[in-house]
TrEMBL record:
It holds the Pfam family RNase_PH_C. Keywords: Nucleotidyltransferase, RNA-binding, rRNA processing, Transferase, tRNA processing, tRNA-binding. Belongs to the RNase PH family. GO terms for molecular function: 3'-5'-RNA exonuclease activity; tRNA binding; tRNA nucleotidyltransferase activity. It catalyses: tRNA(n+1) + phosphate = tRNA(n) + a ribonucleoside 5'-diphosphate. Homohexameric ring arranged as a trimer of dimers. HAMAP family: RNase_PH. This is Ribonuclease PH. Coiled coil: none annotated.
């Protein structure tokens, strides 16, 4: 594949370089009433993340002295090209929705000291306003900012002795598009890639979760290594944006 002197990969629909993120914006304090909030914009994917503090924990955690972080995820009816009924109207959540919200919760708990949090629950809500690929990665990245702001409120009022967060956590997608490893897939690439992967990594580089799938032929370990290298670069850039959003 040919590249311009600036490194732009001609094969990408957006014209981005293979290692370039979409235009990313993390807007903290977007929701007036939530203890923490962030509007995460990954290009044309926009996800509103809010954090609510509850002075209770699930029944199975009562008396243990530890807190909990959980998440809910949903897509608004016109977040996609055609209208999709609200899952509440259908009477049940899809398997995809359940899988994504569990992933968000696991990702945030991986960098939260639940003992410092005490017997409180932080409930994260992620609502996809507009979808163009990578909604789960935007949700995780924005949710960390919302969670940080909510926890900072507890610290400020002396409800907890120190910040319960132990590290950043962010997520990004990578894939093989037209035979080339590329970073941060938009919908056009995600719907036509040979393989795609979602990487959830901490700010220090620890691996929280990796979801990788061959859409056509199996891919090689060397290709996976290239995707992981791209993901580490992208997570590093997202961590810088998260830091700026919570300063």
């Amino acid at each position: 594949m040919t590249q311009t002197p600036s490194g732009a990969f001609h094969g990408r629909p957006s014209g981005r370089a293979v290692d370039a993120l979409r235009a990313i914006r993390l807007e903290p304090g977007y929701a007036k009433h939530a203890e923490g909030s962030c509007l995460a914009r990954f290009g044309d994917t926009h996800v509103l993340c809010t954090a609510t503090i509850e002075d209770r924990v699930p029944p199975w955690l009562k008396g243990g002295g530890k807190g909990w972080v959980t998440a809910e995820y949903g897509m608004l009816p016109r977040s996609t090209h055609t209208r999709t009924d609200r899952e509440a109207a259908r009477g049940k959540q899809s398997g995809r929705t359940q899988e994504i919200q569990r992933l968000i919760g696991r990702s945030l708990r991986a960098v939260t000291d639940l003992a410092i949090l005490g017997e409180r629950q932080i409930r994260i809500d992620c609502d996809v306003i507009q979808a163009d690929g990578g909604t789960r990665t935007a949700a995780i990245t924005g949710s960390w900012v919302a969670l940080h702001h909510a926890l900072a409120t507890l610290v400020r009022f002396g409800a907890v002795k120190s910040m319960p967060l132990t590290d950043h956590v962010a997520a990004i997608s990578c894939g093989l598009y037209r035979g080339e490893p590329v970073l941060d897939l938009d919908y056009a690439e995600d719907s036509d890639c040979q393989a795609d992967a979602n990487f959830v990594l901490t700010g220090r580089g620890g691996i929280v979760e990796i979801q990788a799938t061959a859409e056509t032929d199996p891919f090689e370990e060397s290709e996976f290594d290239a995707l992981l290298k791209l993901a580490r670069k992208g997570i590093g850039e997202l961590t810088v944006l998260q830091k700026a959003a919570v300063e």
